Each structure stands twice: as structure tokens, then as C-alpha cells.
Amino acid sequence: MLSSLHPTIRWTPPVLELACPDHDWDIHLGGRGLLLAPSYFIGQEPAINLDPDLPPVVIYPVTHDSTWNPASTSEDAEVTRRIRISALLGHGRAAVLEALSADQSTSTHLVRRTGLSPATVSHHTTVLREAGLIDTRRAGISVQHTITPLGIRLMRGESAPHPW
Questions:
Q1: How far is CA 57 from each of CA 2, 12, 14, 18, 64, rounded to the nearest angstrom?
Q2: Does 71 have pLDDT greater than 80?
Q3: What confidence score (pLDDT) does residue 65 get?
Q4: CA angle at 124 for the pair 118 and 130, rounded to the nearest 5°
Q5: Is 46 within 8 Å of 8 (Cβ atoms)?
Q6: What distance in Å separates the CA atoms of residue 1 and residue 52, rounded to the nearest whole number?
Q7: CA distance between the termini of the chain
């Protein structure tokens, strides 16, 4: 188990070895026990506290995952997803895209569903269309907006396929 914590930590009974680039430690436990403390903030190397009156403490780095998501339930995940989309697109565009993810809609219907002004909805649909997130088609005297596959993937939090 100790060797799986970090590549520089090795257990060779009765010695715990920490082989870091700047320093090497051989820790003789002598029945004192060992306290393991994972740390997200320590950096890339483990550290050690060798107070002679206490059991040795090895503080080791945990993997830094850049996609860390604190959401613990599907409801939390949905809230987190909406917050991220609003941060990316802005609240108004996120509201328009969210409304279109439920069903296609006319501009007038988007005004009612989002509470935004007609001019703001028009501006947001233009930006979303130019970004490839929605399609717009004329339907008589009105226009019909539909979310694109790219917009759907964004709303689901999925990665877009790379063009290369």
C-alpha cells in the first residue's frame, strides 16, 4: 500500500524510504506507527514530520485532477453544469440555450421563456448561431431556433470531437 501512495515512497521492512530529488529519508518506525496525510496542496513531492515524541507523519501529494467537480449528487451536478455554462456564455445566452435544449422555439417564445427583451434575445441568438450552437430558420413571419448537436454536447457537459 505504501508504494502506491507516491513513486518516491517505498517500504523495505523495517524501514520506510522516501527517495526525493532533493533529499532521501530512511525512517525506522520502531513500532511507533505512521500517520499518512494526503494533501492536495503540497506540490509534487512528499514531506515528512519527524517529531521524536510523535509517530512519523508522511504528507504525500494526491493527484491534481483539473476536472475536479465537487458535485456529489445528480442535482448538484446539474447545478454545477448550469453555473459553468453561465460562466462560459453569460447568463442570458445560457438561458436561451437552456430553453432551446428543451425544445425548438421562436424568438417570441424565447422572450417569454427567458424573461429577456426581444432585442436581447435577438442578439443572443445571433451570437449562439455564429458559434454553431443553434440553427435559425425562417418559418413564415417568424424564425425558428433549434439547438445543434454541438449545443447539445455543450449543455450535457460533453467534449466536442476534435476536427483533427
A1: 13, 17, 16, 12, 21
A2: no
A3: 53
A4: 135
A5: yes
A6: 24
A7: 41
Per-residue cell: 90 = 453569460
| Separation of alpha carbons 124 and 103, rounded Å | 17
Helices of type H across 16-143 = 74-89, 91-102, 107-114, 118-130
Give the integer Cα–Cα distance in Å for 140 and 51. Answer: 80
Q: Mean pLDDT over all residues of the chain?
A: 82
Interval 117-136: pLDDT, tens: 999 999 999 999 999 999 99
Cis, peptide link before residue 14, omega less than 30° from 0: yes
User: Dihedral of the CA atoms 64, 67, 70, 76 (nearest 10)?
Assistant: -170
- What is the pTM (predicted TM-score) of this model? 0.53
Q: Which helix (H) or strand (E) holds 155?
A: helix 149-156
Question: Of the spans 44-48, 56-60, 121-125, 153-157, which averages the highest pLDDT?
Answer: 121-125
